[in-house]
Amino acid sequence: MADEPKPTTEAPPPAPSAGRSPTMADIARAAGVSESTVSRALAGSNLVSAKTRDKVRRIAAAHHYRINERARSFRLRKSSTVALVTCGVRRGTLSLPASFLIDLVAELAERAGGAGYDLLISRDIHEDRALMSDLIGAQRAGGVIVLGQGGHHHLLNALADEGWPFVVWGAQRPDQRYITVGSDNVCGGAMAVGHLLALGRRRILFLGDPDQIEAGDRYQGYCQAHAAAGVAVDPALVLRHHNAGLLNKARLQALLAAGPAFDAVMATSDLLALGAIQALDTAGVRVPGDVAVAGFDDIHSARHATPPLTTVRQDVKGGAAYLFDALIRRIAGDRPASVVLEARLIRRASCGA
Question: In this protein, which residues make up the domain named HTH lacI-type (predicted)?
Fold first, then answer.
């Protein structure tokens, strides 16, 4: 058992000199224990009796003393930094739109900061296979959160096989060996398309890239909703678009001019959906009168669009919490289960009801 307090009257720590905060040595002298006992007591160690832990915590709280986590991490050779990297963002293959990424990073920063961690935003992991070693092996970060999968599922599996502590925002795959947190994209796609079909739309354009993992799951939901309604899927009504963050409006306008005809759009991101509304308006097509439009993400600008955008809301706050907590457990050597978050349909005026 670590040393117990000497039987003396409890006294406040000696007043630090002007401009100096109390140190662990100050707290130790006031409690009549060693600095190591103060450290253990504030960490909740069972090597220190409950009575001593309470006394040390009272003195520390009275003088607003907090452990310097950066110094503690340095002594323990443990990083207090978590890295954020993207996967497959460059070369026009952005699978997560920028607005959604900003929302997710903001929530992650709040979660990490509340736990005493900093965030380090680094480069794209698909462009640099040595990135895990550069970040974790060099102790620049204790673990990595990967934002998006793109088409790089096999790369992520290979990195998991190497034993690196990381988690991924993305969709589950049957053979994955890494941990994911993400929305139920199949259900979300089915809800959006089912809503359009229930409103009488029968020629629904799918706008996105079915070859990307999350967008592919949304396309699966698109197909499931058609099957449930007894409506055949027309392969010609798939406008493949690799970048989820920026619509090539000329391609949509060319489709309007040459066919095939469509009376609704299901986009795999809100940014694609908002771009579609602008392109349709430029072409003199009324939304939702002629064409109804639905998106995915529920970014801030979706509710302020003209008309406000029907979309599928992802649980960004919950997702950030699960990502961060799963990574901390992974760093500690655990292997938490992957998580699929519920998606929610948000009905607004862009679909007419």
Answer: 22-76
The position carrying tokens 């694609």 is 272
DSSP secondary structure string for all residues of 321-352:
HHHHHHHHHHHTT--PPPEEEPPEEE--GGGT
Alpha-carbon distance of 348 to 353, in angstroms, equals 7
CB-count burial class (<10 Å; 0-12, 13-18, 19+) for 329: middle
Taking each helix axis as running N to C, give the angle between helix 270-282 and helix 98-114, from 0 to 180 degrees, rounded to the nearest 10.
150
How far is 206 from 58, CA to CA, in rounded Å?
Answer: 61
pLDDT of amino acid 96: 60
Mean pLDDT by 10-residue block, N- to C-terminus, for the chain (353 residues)? 48 52 84 85 81 91 70 53 78 60 91 90 74 77 87 86 91 93 97 98 95 92 98 94 70 84 95 93 94 95 95 96 93 91 97 86
Residue 146 φ then ψ, to 5°: -100, 125
Sign of CA dihedral 269, 275, 280, 286: positive
Query: pTM value?
Result: 0.74
Q: Give the domain 1-67 fold.
A: 434 Repressor (Amino-terminal Domain) (1.10.260)
Which candidate, 238, 248, 247, 290, places its Cα nearest to that of 269? 247
Tens of pLDDT, residue by residue over 284-331, are 999 999 999 999 999 999 999 999 999 999 999 999 999 999 999 998
